[in-house]
Amino acid sequence: MPFDGKAFVRTLPSSPGVYRYFDAAGELLYVGKAGNLKKRVGSYFLKPRMEPRIAAMIAQIARCEITVTRTEGEALLLESQLIKSLKPRYNIMLRDDKSYPYIYLSGGEDFPRLAFHRGARNLPGRFFGPYPSAFAVRESLNLMQKLFKVRQCEDSYFRNRSRPCLQYQIGRCTAPCVGLIDVETYREDVRHAEMFLEGRSSAVIDELAAAMDAASARLDFERAAALRDQVAALRKLQAEHHVHGASADMDVIACRIEADQACVSVLFFRNGISLGTRDFFPRLPLDATPADLLAQFVAQFYLERPVPRELVLGAPIAEAELLAQMLAEQSGHAVAIKTRVRGERAQFLQLAERNAQAALTSRLASRQTLGARFADLARVLELEEPPRRIECFDISHTRGEATVASCVVFGPEGPEKSHYRRFNIAGITPGDDYAAMHQALTRRFRKVAEGEGARPDLLLIDGGSGQVAQALDVLRELGVDGVRVVGVAKGPGRRAGEETLVLADAGRELHPGSASPALHLVAAVRDEAHRFAIGGHRRRREKARTQSVLEEVPGIGARRRAALLKAFGGLAGVEAAGVEELSRIKGIDRGLAERIYAALHG
């Protein structure tokens, strides 16, 4: 039965809330919010003429659900949460799964450290940010090393030093690991670093200038000269921030729409300092305007992120006051949304608009190139149409240790990173790549066989005929049909552009050549799978090595462990040493040497 929208509207209350439209198959079409549900939902079914986009959606509606809220602000918040989690087809969808990085200052230690941090902020200490990119965080950490010399090394490295490291030698650390600075002096450096990260650089300069005068008065000219250089560096940096920064905590947001693609560019300013810019490419329904895009972007983007006190937008948006009120309730401070600006804000807005246009132009050009590569791949592989979903598998390990398989996914618009997967391989002979590939493919395609996972049109395997045979065996065992399997084997000399494509179904090999757009696409997908596998393998290996085997040996404390590592040049050297060599180390008797050897060799 067709959905009777007029009859449904008569049953609705006049309360604020959220409405959801579904099609006949139960797929969510659209999520919207309303200050008055009866009036808002009624506007879809009682108007004689609608925009083409709205009319196309209404024709598909088979069911409508509502959720009543206490206020319109609650409805706006619930709408943003549902759009982000359910991804309706006709809503503007911000695709930004990547968490934002912070600068982390550890707590509960005599000698805290500064570090790059991404993820949950549940560690003891303070977090400064978020920053728009990892590059911005590393730039700031590099600057902090030069100005305040607070350590940035890992705790495991810090605890096992017997002499100062290179950072001390080049003047970027005060070597607290070996006691070359006392706790009180180090804490003063940490306090100044905190003040700087909070934007109180002027107060830091005043304190350092006073300390410089005091050092000069007591004739400690070496200390006074060091403080003078630190003050000069801070004043220079402050002058640069005055030129490039803003006078308030704010984000400047501009957007551009062209050829059914959209780009939103955000400039971040905190504590008068520019933290850089970041570009976003939301999924765009038909006929969306810049105002629609900005309203949805702001609501979704700041749903789970700290909100600055000021937002400068490139176009006026509907219900700006309501949105500002919701963000203020969420953040605990007043939030101003501005569109008509002058002075420095106007200049920053122009800069954001230029960034958005440049990023969109680059993406459109890249999209055209990618489309040509997909079309050429269909021609080379003799497919009826270009593949809609390509998956590629690769294996990474170090001499059989911590084996990880990766699966990356590419579509017509490029990598689909939310579908990437890693598989920790276990229960095989170390170094057996065939068994590792068989296990990873079995785990991936078992879900397809059960009707859960998406089925790829093209399956790329990093390897030759042996690895391709593993893929065919898995698909045959699980009864999965309709997947084209192609192996990507390295060419002579392992040079890029000379790869061989091994066609599983035709039993032949292709050599497209370095000028082939199809091979460029295949190589890009293969390289991405390789990068993703290596990253997972390294993290798994580092996690396994976080605790040294030596720490588990009774009688081996920090001092003896450091002596062993120093004498043999690291854990690999200790593993290669025999009982006699181990027992020659000061503090290691023969009984302890035998226990060490047994622990390292099973």
What does this structure look like?
The structure is a single chain. This protein has 602 residues and is an alpha+beta fold. The chain has 5 domains: 82 residues, GIY-YIG endonuclease (3-Layer(aba) Sandwich), CATH 3.40.1440; 141 residues, no CATH class; 113 residues, Nucleotidyltransferase, domain 5 (2-Layer Sandwich), CATH 3.30.420; 151 residues, UvrC, RNAse H endonuclease domain (Nucleotidyltransferase, domain 5); 49 residues, 5' to 3' exonuclease, C-terminal subdomain (DNA polymerase, domain 1). Helices cover 45% and strands 19% of the residues. The strands form 4 sheets. Strands 12, 13, 14, 15, 16, 17, 18 and 19 form an 8-stranded mixed beta sheet that branches. Strand 4 and strand 5 form a beta hairpin. Helix 4 packs across helix 12 and helix 13 packs across helix 16. It is globular, with a radius of gyration of 30 Å. The mean pLDDT is 85.
